[in-house]
Amino acid sequence: MWSRSEPHDRRERLFGGAGAVLVWNLCAAGPARPFGAVLACELEGAASVGTHLQHEHAEIVIVMEGQGVAHVAGVPMALHPGAVVEVPLGHTLALANGSDHDPLRYLIVKAG
After folding, report:
1. pLDDT of 61-77, one tens digit each?
2. Residue 70, C-beta contacts closer than 8 angstroms, at least 6 positions apart
3. CA angle 94, 13, 35 (to 5 degrees)
4. Which one of 6, 47, 57, 75 has the fewest CB atoms closer than 10 angstroms to its CB?
């Protein structure tokens, strides 16, 4: 995970955020039902993912490294290693890295 030598996407200003997030698909052949996706993400220092609606899949975000804040339906939640953020279908999510230098690394598991 989080190896730049492995295939990944770099997404700039995702959903109107700032900076970039790197995304690795951990189930390249497609996850088994009931999952829609399993992703490893690295949000660069001082970067953010803008507010977006979960209109197709509910998801959970599991923080592995770093600090920051998530907003689920506008409610702030502290991000730290071990934090789990539930984002129900129909709710919004935004993420911000709390460090100017260190990445925020997290997993996303989407319901199918």
Report:
1. 999 999 999 999 999 99
2. 61, 76, 77, 79, 85, 93, 94, 95, 96
3. 55
4. 75
